[in-house]
Amino acid sequence: MDQKTRLLTAFNLERPDRPPILGGWLAAPEHIRTLTGCNEEQYWEDPVHWAVEAERVLGSDGMVATVTPVSRDDFRIIDAHTLENRASYTMDKVLEEIEALPTPDDMKTVFNEDIAYLQFLAEFDSMQTRCKEILWCPADWDLIPIALNYHTYGYENALTLPILYPEAHQKFMRYKAELGRQRAILHARAIQAGLHPNSILTGEDLCGQRGPMISPKLLRQEYFELIEYSIEPLLRIKAKLVWHCDGDVRPILKDILACGFAGLQGFQRECGMELEWIVNLKAHSQDPLLIYGPISVTKLLPFGTPNDVISEVNRAIDICQDKASLVFFTSNTINPDVPLDNIKAYWDTVIHSSWK
User: Fold this and answer.
1) In this model, does residue 71 exceed pLDDT 90?
2) What CA–CA distance (Å, rounded) separates 346 from 328?
3) How far is the C-alpha of 46 from the C-alpha of 124, rounded, in Å?
4) N or C end: fewer C-beta atoms under 10 angstroms in the chain?
């Protein structure tokens, strides 16, 4: 099978010739340069190009993103300036910004689907052209409402907002839900036209290592209902949406699947998110789950040996066989602390794997 056919077969819950492998979260410029043979100046002239080339060298079937550091001194997409900006937020500033947001009705009025779709398709086609034979499967973190906007407001403000200012919090979530629905309309249109993969990674980091950072009771009052509203255009065409799982997601996992998600991605075994029981869950449709994972970037890849990596790949195939549709992916970004030998062992083992 070629890369596209292999991935689409897995997305459709059928068995390809081997488990496909998704890339796109390689956040180590030095590894990218080593894999591709480019020098530092060449890399910084076009980081996206070299990120794609590294995935091609490794042998990825698809990509969900490219990770470009904000500067030569960083390896993540945030830096000290980002953190300073978060720290500058006061609750008064947060409330002022939320008050100024348009209402969902206003957003519907100004939304021009045809113009937005042309822009959406141009951006998608541009990346697919760069990826060539690798299937571009972009994650979309704007598909759903956001319950904890700590990425912008910082943790203290984000955690305070739903407790002390519930009306403002609800307005913010409804704004994000309408934005998400508009994104879903564009994705669905492209999928129906046969131009876009029928599986999309999305989600929100709601959980730490001890469980949800916000009360599940609060989430059940409105958040999950708004998720269903946001993704309904995609559920209507039976697209396979995959939820990103960081931390201990167990207390809200049934709620997430009940929204209509077809799959799960991530899994931190140290938080109780173990593949052995996850593969026995069913999607809301009662179909087997679509699994993006389960290669750990917190334990296995940075601290294991190549043999440990090989064993984990084979273990995942054994666990998922006849229970879930497996697409190999990492739990999060692959940072510079991961030895290149482990990265190569991971990709090579998947590429040369087969079903039992």
Assistant:
1) no
2) 9
3) 18
4) C
Catalogue the E-assigned strands of the chain.
22-23, 62-63, 135-136, 199-202, 207-208, 211-212, 240-245, 263-266, 290-295, 325-330
356 within a domain of the structure (yes/no): no
**Domain assignment of residue 166, yes or no:** yes
Is residue 18 assigned to a domain?
yes
Mapped onto helix, strand or coil, the DSSP state of residue 82 is helix
Residue 184 zone, left/alpha/beta (φ > 0; ψ -120 to 50; rest): alpha
Count how many domains the chain has.
1
Domain harbouring 165, CATH code: 3.20.20.210
CA distances from 106 to 181, 182, 225 (A): 14, 13, 21
CB 11 within 8 A of CB 199: yes
pLDDT at 13 over 90: yes
pLDDT at 244 over 80: yes
CA distance to 97, 143, 163, per residue, from 175 (Å): 12, 12, 18
3 state SS for 125-162: HHHHHHHCCCEECCCCCCCCCCCCCHHHHCHHHHHHHH
Domain enclosing residue 302, as ranges: 3-351
Nearest to 201 by CA among 231, 160, 237: 231
Whole-angstrom distance, CA of residue 10 vs CA of residue 23? 15
Is residue 107 a part of any domain in this protein?
yes
Q: What is residue 72's predicted lDDT score, i.e. its pLDDT? A: 78
Give the span between the Cα atoms of 191 and 134, in whole angstroms: 17
Structure tokens at 215: 């009360």
Degrees, nearest 5: CA angle 333-315-342? 40
Q: Give per-residue pLDDT as tens, 285-339.
A: 999 999 999 999 999 999 999 999 999 999 999 999 999 999 999 999 999 999 9
Which amino acid is present at 329?
Answer: F
